[in-house]
């Protein structure tokens, strides 16, 4: 049975690995939210304080390895990837290369790489969060709208689309409120329809599982829903696939899942971001629901040393799934959520989940993690799957005091 050291917590990975021929040790950061978690299924657990140094992480990994040799490193979340690289190097075990993690975390580095290789020429610039003049200069050169976002963050934190320079002060105030510790990446706005591409790689060969349709807030770019698989005419599909595979080659991805956000513009597809992980918002769960094989399990098995590429599902459009989100429209303390039971009983609904808890203070949605509830539904057509999820999520209400 292979022994995987999980660097940072991944509930989905652990839950879906039951029954596989692997066992996990875990190193994670502690906190109040961790105290109620059931960690009994792990071989061993080491809890570190939030300010633990990288060296402390590495020495904990070495300690485990001394008494129970580790076969593989599992860095299954973006927040864990940088330490996972260090851990793999210290223990001489496989993981993504350091450059892969750098170019997928640093959004400007990714842009520079794609520009240098002639893959995507989208204009971008790094500026300080208080350098409004440089953003105005960029907008004068490239035109509005422009997008401002953190150089390295997740969940659409602090992102704004600035349609005119009159909107810039408010956009920068939003950025400083939620991502003020980071530099600003300002980019030329890509006009078109946004999609994401879910892929799985092995030995540098990339297999596209599906393209996902995205529903987003036009102002904050926070996702309000997804539907998969998206069906394209063959020429457009091939252009998107080729762009994504070239992007994954450019960042040096050799193995594991990837989630690449793409804008289909009038001049063709353009890359927004790429990530060395499965898509969030239950995208992997929807792929497993429709395609049979579970991408989470395939990922764990590959980390443990198995070849899994032939088993990676490719969705054929014979069935569809959609997830839709809802959030409270006011600020205050959540008293209760009503309508979850009604939502789960509606046609085609697979699950309905609360994303906030009674007693929690809630307000404006500022990233993917501050949304209120979700509904996942399936159907024989994309339109019906979306409609089922939207109708069910509309039954959910937030009672706020």
TrEMBL record:
Name of the protein? ATP-grasp domain-containing protein
Q: Which InterPro entries match?
A: ATP-dep_AA_Ligase, ATP-grasp, LAL_C2
Query: PANTHER family this protein is in?
Result: ATP-GRASP ENZYME FSQD, FUMIPYRROLE BIOSYNTHESIS PROTEIN C
Q: Does the keyword Nucleotide-binding apply?
A: yes
Q: What are the ATP-grasp domain coordinates in residue numbering?
A: 111-304
- Which keywords does this chain's UniProt record carry? ATP-binding, Ligase, Nucleotide-binding
Q: Which domain of life is it from?
A: Bacteria
Q: Annotated Gene Ontology MF terms?
A: ATP binding; ligase activity; metal ion binding
Task: Write down the Pfam families for this protein, in alphabetical order.
Answer: ATP-grasp_4, LAL_C2
